[in-house]
Amino acid sequence: MDHRTQQRVEEMRSSLSSLGVAITRRRAKMLEILASTDRHPSANELHAEVRRWYPSTSLATVYNTIDLLKEAGQILELEFSASANRYDGRRPASHPHLVCISCQSIEDMDDPHDPGARALDRLSHATGYRLVRQRTDYYGICPACQLQEYDTTTPPAPDASLTPQPASSGKASFP
Fold first, then answer.
1. Are 73 and 12 in a shared domain?
2. Domain total of the chain
3. Which of 50, 107, 112, 164 falls 20 to 30 Å from 33 in CA-CA distance?
4. Which tens digits make up the pLDDT trace of 56-87?
């Protein structure tokens, strides 16, 4: 585990501990996974990954830990109406994302035009709202899917099983 990941895991551990939450081996593994991945896993993906080390881990344990991390402000939940929510443990503060509409991959994005907290403060002052978070997502087709899309426009090689084969009578027939 690199230094940044260790530091992030320690931040999450400390926040959970301050809430009186016991850091079990399963929870520690979840923290490690969330702090080390930039993939923004769903609860089911996180569950599958934790089960590689601790096969008896329940999905309820994963959801309970996610809820505790949200309460502690240590995880960013990305809600999508058409698919499962995804989670960012590396960067729990609101930030822009690139979302592929083809493969549903999510990438963190540093938006040079996003003035961040100052803009939220100005907006809060101007409207009277107590703003708690913002969300900006950009949707498109990622480079990998664009390549795959390009490859699918090339006619596929003929399938040998569909090519007529000579029969013993000399007439073509399909196998």
1. yes
2. 2
3. 112
4. 999 999 999 999 999 999 999 999 888 899 99
Rounded to two decimals, what is the model's pTM? 0.75
3-state secondary structure 66-114: HHHHHHCCCCEEECCCCCCCEEECCCCCCCCEEEECCCCCEEECCCCCC
Q: Are residues 23 and 53 in the same domain?
A: yes
Q: Encoding tokens for residue 107? A: 């990438």
Q: Let me know whether 106 and 33 are in one domain.
A: no
Question: Domain residues for 109?
Answer: 94-153
85 and 3 assigned to the same domain: yes
Residues, the chain: 175
